[in-house]
Amino acid sequence: MSLLTWEWVLDHLAGCRNAWLSTVRPDGRPHAAPVWIVVTGGRLWFSTPETTTKAKNLRADARIVLQADSGDVATIVEGRAIPGGAGDDVLAAYADKYGEAAPDQDSFWVVEIQSALAWRGHLGSGQVQPTRFTP
Questions:
Q1: Which CATH architecture has domain 6-119?
Q2: pTM over the 0.85 mark
Q3: pLDDT over 90 percentage in the chain
């Protein structure tokens, strides 16, 4: 089984409807919640309003883990979430993917990926070869 490519990882993330975003609460406890994600220009984006626990956590500590999986295909991204107004490309990708207008462009965050782990195949089969990335 061959190693996966970075393009495969981005395609997998772009194709996933939901991902789980894990953040750190101010008291150190973890917090996980689903988000919708889009990939444009090789960058990963998600949206969450300022009033959410996710956004409040990110304002205090930008570290994240984001996991997208569909059965025996998984990608786990570690990095930081940077607040930033989404451009027209991000808003269009969001509308195309989710079939609805994107939320306020200022509610988007771009993921500064520090490392990623991806695999495909049944974990119990012994046929899985995880691929680690450090862009």
A1: Roll (2.30)
A2: yes
A3: 69
